[in-house]
Amino acid sequence: MTSPVAAAQEDRAAATRRRILEVAEALFRSIGYQKTAVADIARELGMSPANVYRYFASKSAINEAIAERLLAGIGGELDAIADGTGPAAGRLRAMLRLLHARHLELFFREKRMHDMVSAAMSEHWGVIAAFVARIEAAFARVLADGVARAEFAPVDPVAAARRLKQATFPWTHPVLIADCLEKGVADEAQLAVELDGMLDLLIRGLKIDH
Amino acid sequence: MTSPVAAAQEDRAAATRRRILEVAEALFRSIGYQKTAVADIARELGMSPANVYRYFASKSAINEAIAERLLAGIGGELDAIADGTGPAAGRLRAMLRLLHARHLELFFREKRMHDMVSAAMSEHWGVIAAFVARIEAAFARVLADGVARAEFAPVDPVAAARRLKQATFPWTHPVLIADCLEKGVADEAQLAVELDGMLDLLIRGLKIDH
């Protein structure tokens, strides 16, 4: 058993970790990921850089933890929709609209947010891969439920979840969204309309009959 | 009317242009796009660089013409399938399989081919955009034909053509194919199987009934 003293120490360590992440995220968003040094984070917290390094091995490790926390939040929102009630088609639609909205926020609303997330993507692909796997698992649960409710035709939920992910990359993959918005192929309003059109087609393909 | 002399001169100019492109493409593929200079192309042709510049303003302009010719070839193959006979679904399937195969060739079989095509993509987006528009138009013709034959449910062929293009980016967009192959998410054989799975879903979504 953990002694009350050890437990209190653990609580304090967890609280310090959390404070480091909060301050670092605020600095990454205001100064920018590249320009923020661990020394800046330490100064803002009124602690020594050595103390920050007791909790995180590097700035990159701090960003990894921030990305994990951020994606865990989005994952939680998606799970809540996936495990809700109502027709499976409506849940898939709501999940993909949310995912698209969150991607626009992560990559296109704030330049500094973009740099932070891009650094996480190139340095900590494992965090991103785990998030993608979590999304696919949530899609698969909704698809299996849709089949069980005889709303969707029988289908391998895991394979169909991958298809949903792949068919909607233009709304969730940063490179494809950028292709679209930056080359003026479509603006955000058109993107939203097109996502609904894609979902109409995909859901029609999944439905047990028309 | 063009005089016989002028016509012969035009023929010779077209033949020289064609020879420059053939030699340049061979050098780009053997030495690499970045390492080939206009002087190398001229030497190989036994002409002066100044003479090459009479036909093309720059190496980049030569590459633009090569890309145009290459994409015109693929566009022709796709049009031939699109305007063939048989069920619309089968034609869409054949077109997307061909497009995927050609993208693998362009970007993943030869490193030097990749560099050449990538240079064309960044320097001459207009050529690529025209090719994409041509593909979408070919899809739209097949979709309209499918609706006319009561094979597909009524649909806006232009919008549905865009959906087909978007849903199949994982098999045609160089960044997405690379994501997949280089991160070991899937190999080429799995990619082919997954494309068929995606086409099953999309065609089911288009069909007038199941």
TrEMBL record, chains A, B:
Q: List the molecular function annotations (GO) for this entry.
A: DNA-binding transcription factor activity; transcription cis-regulatory region binding
Query: Which UniProt keyword terms apply here?
Result: DNA-binding, Transcription, Transcription regulation
Indicate the residues that the entry says bind DNA.
37-56
> TM spans, by residue?
none
Q: Boundaries of each HTH tetR-type domain copy?
A: 14-74
Write down the superkingdom of origin.
Answer: Bacteria
Q: Which is a Pfam family this sequence falls into?
A: TetR_N
Please state what the protein is called: TetR/AcrR family transcriptional regulator
- Organism the protein comes from: Neoroseomonas soli
